[in-house]
Each structure stands twice: as structure tokens, then as C-alpha cells.
Amino acid sequence: MLFMLNDCNLTDKGCSALAAVLGSDTNLKELNMNNNNLQDSGVKLICTGLKNIKCKLEILRLNDCNLTDKSCSDLAAVLGSDTNLKELNMNNNNLQDSGVKLICTGLKNIKCKLEILRLSNCSVTEEGYKALASALRSNPSHLIELDLTGNDPGESGVKQLNDLLQDPDCQLKSLRFLSPAAEEACQYVNRVMGENPFLQRKLNLSEHKLRDTQVNQIAALLQDKHCRLNRLTLNRCRITEKQSLILTSALKSNPSHLRELNLSRNKLGDSGVKHLCAVLKDSHCKLERLR
């Protein structure tokens, strides 16, 4: 049974009745409460129902519910109990590292059955990523899918995730922390170069024929907050005037750390150079060397 209460202008006052339902002999397996003003007090009430031995709920969606790290303490207690919860969505809440660390205590508990955890846009930084990596290396963890898009782990956080995926004890099959286009760019670079661009300062794709799709992906990569590339070489890549516009647009974005760009021996034409000149005038562009 699926119960959808998203976008219903609910507050914590409605959660007491829901907690009673969850603790009864209902067959409810999925509860969607996205985009309601539940706040921490509302989640605390819901958790009393989730901890009831009669509760059969497997999927709980709490996206955009004005939650903070206080909610995570109650949810961690649920994860560490005999709950049937297998999927927890908490996207777009201000959980921060302190909240993620609390969730991790639940993930490490041998009773935890959680398989899917979504924490995109939850103000998570390096410390939160470190805690998650530690939790997911623990033997009890059943987590197979983790969504962390829209957070900012910094360079060390990205390395923690990369190392985690190499760990034989980690059960994770799907890890998302990039925009879809940036993720595709990462996969492309891994395929043709055998390296992860998010762990590199330099990237040389010279003499690889880049189609519009790849150029769009590389542009997304440069715009992604996780990317720390400061030197990009695209010599003899058959880049056209149209593609140069895509790249130059990316260089105007605030996250771009690029300091050196090599576009030698491409088909930029006069208009391509004109686009480059325009971006060099832009205050957001940090480019210091252009070939």
C-alpha cells in the first residue's frame, strides 16, 4: 500500500495521527510526505510509529520538509531498531555534517536494513562524507544506493568516495554525487584516459575527436563544484566554433578553477576566438594562460 501526502501543507500536528497508523496493523509499505512543513518535531512523532514492532513501512520520503540534524537523531534510532525501513529520502533538508554523522550511527547498527539513502542538497561537507565512508565500510551495512548530489565534499571527500568504491567490503552499487552530465564526463574520461578527473589537476584529451555530447559533458565537468581541474589541454580535438561557445560559457561559471586552456589546432574560426575574448573580460573567469 502506498500513501501519498506530498505537497499537502502538513505540519507536525498531523504527524501524531500518522504515527498511530504506522504503529497499527496496517499494510502501509510506502509513505510520501515530501514538500510539507513537518520540521524536526513532526519527524520525531513519525519515528515513534516507525519503531513499533507492528510497523511494515519500507519506504519513507521526507524531501523538502524543513528538517535539521535534530531529526537525524530520531531516524538513527529507527535504523538501529527492528524496523523494515529499506529506503529513506531526505533530499533538500539542512541536515549538515552533524546530522549525517547521526544517520551513520544507525547505518552501522547490525539491525539496520536500509538499502537506499538519498541526501542530495543537505549541506554535507568533507566531515559528513568521511563519516559515510566509514559507515559503509562496516560489515553490517546493506546500503546499495547513495545519492549525495548537490553537496560539497571538497577534494578529500571525493577521494574518500573513490577509495570506498574500491573497498571489497563495500556493498554500494550506485553512488551519485555529481550532476548527470558531469557524471557522464567522468565516465568518458575514465574510459579513454583511465583516470578520475575529480582526483586530477590536469587533463589532456589531445587528439581525441570530441563530439557535441563530449564537449557538453566537459563543460558540465568544469562547472561542477567538485572539479578542481586547473589545466585542460584539447589540442587537435576538432573543436568547432559552436563547441567553443559551450566551453567558454562554462569558464564564466563561479566554480571553474581552470587557469590554463590549450585549444591549439582546432577549428574555432573568428567567432570562436571572439567568444574566448568575451569570456576573458568576464570577472568570473580565472583563466591565466590561453593557447
Number of extended strands: 11
Uncertain segments are none
The count of helical stretches stands at 10
CA-CA gap between termini: 61 Å
Helix content: 25-40%
**What is the radius of gyration?**
23 Å
What is CATH's topology name of the largest domain? Answer: Leucine-rich repeat, LRR (right-handed beta-alpha superhelix)
Q: By CATH's scheme, which homologous superfamily of the largest domain applies?
A: Ribonuclease Inhibitor
CATH class of the largest domain: Alpha Beta
Shape designation: elongated
Strand percentage lies at 5-15%
Task: Give the biggest sheet.
Answer: 7 strands, parallel
Q: Which class of secondary structure composition applies to the elements?
A: alpha/beta
What's the CATH architecture of the largest domain? Alpha-Beta Horseshoe
Task: List SSEs in N-to-C order.
Answer: EHEHEHEHEHEHEHEHEHEHE
The total domain count is 2
Give the mean pLDDT: 87
Trace the largest sheet across and list its strands.
1-2-3-4-5-6-7
